[in-house]
Design goal:
alpha+beta; Rossmann fold; Dna Ligase, domain 1; D-amino Acid Aminotransferase, Chain A, domain 1; 3 domains; five-stranded antiparallel beta sheet; four-stranded parallel beta sheet
């Protein structure tokens, strides 16, 4: 097969592993810088161009779109979809996952377990918002934040209110969520491929940090998840329409709750923790499912 991967940095562990896995299985794979792609948007012959050449003949595209380039990355991916190239994750599904508010609303509608979450435009409603989330301590989270950046713990009502007012003062959109104290600063990353959890790891935050992100000094170890946790992760992926994703869960007193669904999950932490060939399983899924014009939305929506 002839594959193309959209990735700004080809030297990241995850990207190198996907290239290795594809090539070891006999595929050709090209890596293109998402922001250096440009498009010819026309009615009957849309195309994608890169370094002066038309990108044609691809069987599938692997979108590794960074959060900072989501809008342009999705435009490029939609163009590939319109050309009939099969996407590992569809543009509409990635867009859902990147909009934290929309993703939570979709998951809530599907009955997937979530932390109690409040959202409001006006900082004058801070007191009510904090109470909706169960009262202090609460988690205050930027809608656009990634890797633990823009996530603050409001330990008291007054400190939480001050943070909310500060964020809203600079016109930043935030969510306020209940603090799952019983999680103990840890979460579970479930790697879902094709509606199956193929790997899971427990991430523990650094000493004194309530965030468990590995980029912020957290550690990871393989963990056996419960049937309910497995079902929750699969339902979350299915609800957003993602073929491959990382679903982050917390173990709460009222069952597993989804914190976030990542449409471009990193592979280094989970491959190291589990010893599994996640990149190879990703390419295997692609081999079985990639067919021209099989995209459900074909770039629409």
């Amino acid at each position: 097969m002839k594959l193309v991967m959209m990735a700004r940095n080809p030297n990241l562990y995850s990207h190198k592993r996907l290239v290795e896995a594809a090539e070891s299985r006999g595929h050709q794979i090209d890596v293109i810088d998402t922001l250096k792609v440009y498009m010819n948007i026309t009615s009957h012959q849309p195309d994608v161009r890169y370094k002066g050449e038309r990108l044609t003949g691809y069987d599938a595209v692997i979108p590794r779109i960074g959060a900072s380039v989501t809008a342009y990355g999705l435009a490029v991916l939609r163009q590939f979809e319109m050309m009939g190239v099969w996407p590992l994750n569809e543009s509409v599904a990635i867009g859902r996952s990147r909009d934290k508010l929309r993703s939570l609303q979709l998951l809530a509608r599907a009955g997937v377990g979530l932390p109690v979450t409040a959202y409001a435009h006006s900082s004058r409603l801070s007191d009510d918002v904090i109470e909706i989330a169960g009262g202090a301590p609460v988690i205050i989270k930027l809608l656009e934040g990634t890797q633990g950046i823009g996530v603050v713990l409001g330990e008291t009502h007054n400190s939480a209110k001050s943070v909310i007012e500060a964020f809203r003062g600079v016109n930043v959109n935030i969510l306020v969520q209940e603090f799952i104290k019983e999680a103990g600063g840890s979460d579970i990353r479930c790697l879902v491929i094709g509606e199956k959890v193929i790997a899971s790891m427990k991430r523990q935050g650094a000493e004194g940090d309530f965030r468990s992100n590995l980029h912020r000094g957290g550690t990871a170890a393989q963990i056996k998840i419960t049937p309910e946790e497995r079902s929750t992760a699969v339902r979350a992926a299915r609800t957003l329409g993602l073929n491959v994703c990382g679903v982050d869960l917390l173990r709460s007193n009222h069952g597993p709750v989804v914190m976030e669904v990542n449409s471009s999950p990193g592979l280094e932490g989970i491959e190291s923790a589990t010893g599994l060939d996640i990149a190879g399983k990703t390419i295997e899924f692609l081999e079985k499912n990639a067919k021209p014009f099989r995209t459900k939305t074909r770039g629409q929506g």
